[in-house]
Write a sequence for this structure.
């Protein structure tokens, strides 16, 4: 158990809908990262937050947004969902930023299925 | 941009066989290198890491050496067990900006390992 929790575990929805994925980082970790894992694209970095502020952006679509709250939990909002958004979404957290050997601890993931 | 290429498999071995999963990378600067493992139905776990050239990361019988001259970080284990069956990801951590204050992980596609008794 990494100490990172994600809810829900599974989500099934229809095209055009909006969903929210939730992540609670390990106790003491200030930084949260979101990743998307799909069969064709593999694991891709989406976005990073540090202590409530957006820190870095990866391959995140404009239809997706995220935020980190004062209690450090984070939410990833996916809107106008398309079939191709079906994937596993992982959250990771870390204590340190600004270091290349900074270990990230991953949650169990949310499996999103768009029908 | 940064990239990681690893043999995609799947790899099927018998218990006690020798394992090698190849990983090569392309990056500017001096990345740190990682191997993560994903067991069925779970998130990724860090298996081992190396932060500079010639470093050897090791854990649970797995080893990988950071080879700058060949830009490689191959994963090896001398004798695999059924419990090692999982997906293995090679990854690098490199700066997102010249200031070096933000880093991101770039992953390979993953290699599915199945170990049969």
């Amino acid at each position: 158990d990494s100490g990172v929790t994600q809810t829900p575990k599974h989500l099934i929805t229809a095209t055009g809908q909006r969903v929210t994925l939730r992540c609670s980082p390990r106790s003491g970790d200030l930084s949260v990262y979101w990743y998307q894992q799909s069969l064709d694209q593999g694991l891709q970095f989406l976005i990073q937050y540090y202590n409530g502020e957006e820190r870095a952006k990866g391959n995140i679509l404009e239809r997706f947004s995220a935020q980190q709250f004062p209690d450090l939990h984070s939410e990833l909002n996916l809107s106008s969902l398309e079939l191709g958004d079906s994937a596993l979404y992982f959250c990771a957290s870390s204590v340190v930023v600004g270091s290349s050997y900074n270990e990230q601890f991953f949650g169990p993931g949310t499996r999103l299925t768009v029908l | 941009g940064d990239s990681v290429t690893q043999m995609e498999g799947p790899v099927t071995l018998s218990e006690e066989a020798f394992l090698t999963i190849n990983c090569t990378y392309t990056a500017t600067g001096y990345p740190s290198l990682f191997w993560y493992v994903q067991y069925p139905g779970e998130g990724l776990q860090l298996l081992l890491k190396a932060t500079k050239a010639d470093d050897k990361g090791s854990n649970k019988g797995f080893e990988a050496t950071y080879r700058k001259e060949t830009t490689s970080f191959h994963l090896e284990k001398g004798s695999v067990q059924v419990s090692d069956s999982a997906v293995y990801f090679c990854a690098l951590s490199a700066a997102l900006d010249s200031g070096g204050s933000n880093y991101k992980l770039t992953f390979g596609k993953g290699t599915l390992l199945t170990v049969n008794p």
In short: Residues 28 and 59 of chain B are 27 Å apart (CA to CA). DSSP finds no helices and twelve strands in chain B. The two ends of chain B are 41 Å apart (CA to CA). Chain B touches chain A at residues 30-32, 36, 41-46, 49, 51, 89, 93-96, 100-110 (CB under 8 Å).
